[in-house]
Design a protein that fits this description.
about 45% helix, alpha/beta, seven-stranded mixed β-sheet, about 15% strand, four-stranded parallel β-sheet, single chain, about 400 residues
């Protein structure tokens, strides 16, 4: 039995990949083990921190002809439903420390923001903002609420009401804009400049690098947790991408620790929002225009983060695109596992990596091209749970609660 129904996909072997290139000081200034240790100290001190599960899926691996599949499930992260909790909130903390430090003329630590009443009062005069498809905005709003600053979030035309309401629950003002995600990014930047707000974005562009770097550094904690739980490194990592910050954080983690022995990194995008694949083909950053219409809302991005491209341009082995149907099929496969594999609740943006891995594994030409086979150990990052519960139930046919109830009963 095929592990996933066959649907169209595209893969592109990156001709710029550098197998022996060292993780040089330029990239260490972007993402590093030292900066990860700083992020880890802050994030693990927050109330509710828990290491998220790393599921082993032996039945699915056997069906795909692979040695192992490991799935890092970020659906329970801080109760926010996605890995984004690690990035946006950490960047808010770092931003507030810098701003208040400049105003007060002294160094301020993230811990002080939570413990010092006077600092929390000072935070109330600061407004952070961003554009989001849902999960990043929820993290920024949560971080702002935790640290006492104001928050305004911009969402674009196709972001669901469920995701809008989820952000509002953390006290943020949510404003809907016309156009796509990249249009909302520009709107947030314009309003911030006009009103003296601070943009907490997960995408970087000329003149705006420090905060996206903090966001990406927060993401690496998830990678560190996963690797710490594995007996040996994976041979392949399939990682989904929007602007590329998440994928770059994953790629950089392995690259820094062993340039020679890092796994094959496969970056996966929706077929209608493939700015990274198009950039790889062009050998330079390329923007994808249009509506970017995909169910995978968290990946519906048309412009590459420049910082992410610093890593992925020569650090990623393969770029791949999948259809919306492949994502839905993967969601259903995780919700209704075969044999002893656990049932997993995964949102539509969480499963792009899994879908690509299974599709390539059952295609002889593709699997040979990327080296997938009986000895392959695949690591996946399930980046969200049912962050839009109504859409999840519509796509899977059961609610997340029913999926987990059925898992207990079987």
């Amino acid at each position: 039995m095929n592990p996933l129904p066959k649907t169209p996909f595209t893969f592109f072997i990156n001709p710029q990949y550098q197998a022996t290139q060292a993780y040089d000081p330029k990239r260490q200034a972007l993402l590093s083990a030292t900066a990860l240790a700083q992020a880890q100290a802050v994030i693990t001190s927050w109330a509710g921190y828990r290491v998220t599960p790393l599921h082993t899926l032996p039945e699915l691996a056997a069906a795909a002809g692979l040695a192992a599949i490991h799935y890092k499930d970020e659906g329970s992260r801080f109760g926010l439903g996605s890995f984004k909790a690690l990035g946006g909130a950490y960047a808010v903390a770092r931003l507030l420390c810098r701003v208040l430090g400049q105003r007060l003329g002294r160094s301020i630590s993230p811990a002080e923001l939570l413990d010092d009443a006077a600092l929390r009062n000072a935070c109330a005069d600061i407004t952070v903002t961003c554009a989001t498809d849902g999960n990043h905005g929820r993290s920024v709003a949560w971080g702002a609420q935790m640290m006492g600053c104001r928050c305004v979030i911009y969402i674009h035309a196709t972001v669901s009401d469920g995701r809008k309401q989820a952000i509002e629950r953390y006290g943020a003002q949510v404003l809907r804009t016309a156009g796509n995600y990249d249009d909302s990014v520009q709107q947030a930047d314009h309003e911030a400049r006009a009103k003296g707000w601070f943009v907490i974005s997960d995408t970087s562009y000329p003149g705006y690098m420090d905060i996206p770097r903090d966001v990406m550094q927060g993401y690496q904690l998830m990678v560190h947790e996963a690797v710490s739980a594995l007996a040996q490194w994976p041979t392949h990592v399939f990682v989904q991408a929007g602007v590329g910050g998440f994928a770059a954080a994953v790629c950089a983690y392995f690259w820094e620790r062993s340039a020679a022995q890092r796994p094959v990194i496969v970056v996966v995008e929706p077929e209608r929002a493939d700015c990274l694949l198009q950039s790889a083909r062009a050998g330079a950053v390329v923007a994808v225009k249009g509506e970017l219409d995909t169910l995978m809302a968290g990946l519906a991005c048309g412009e590459v983060s420049l910082l992410a491209w610093e890593v992925l341009a020569t650090g990623a082995n393969v770029f791949c695109t999948i259809t919306d149907q492949a994502a839905v099929d993967a969601m259903r496969r995780l919700a209704s596992p075969v044999g002893g594999d656990p049932a997993i609740v995964a949102g539509e943006s969480a499963v792009a990596g899994l879908a690509a891995a299974l599709l390539l594994a059952q295609d002889p030409g593709a699997s040979a091209a990327v080296g997938l086979g009986p000895g392959s150990r695949v690591l996946l990052f399930g980046s969200e749970g049912d962050t839009d519960p109504a859409l999840y139930q519509q796509l899977v046919g059961r609610s997340a609660a029913k999926v987990l109830h059925d898992e207990v009963a079987r």
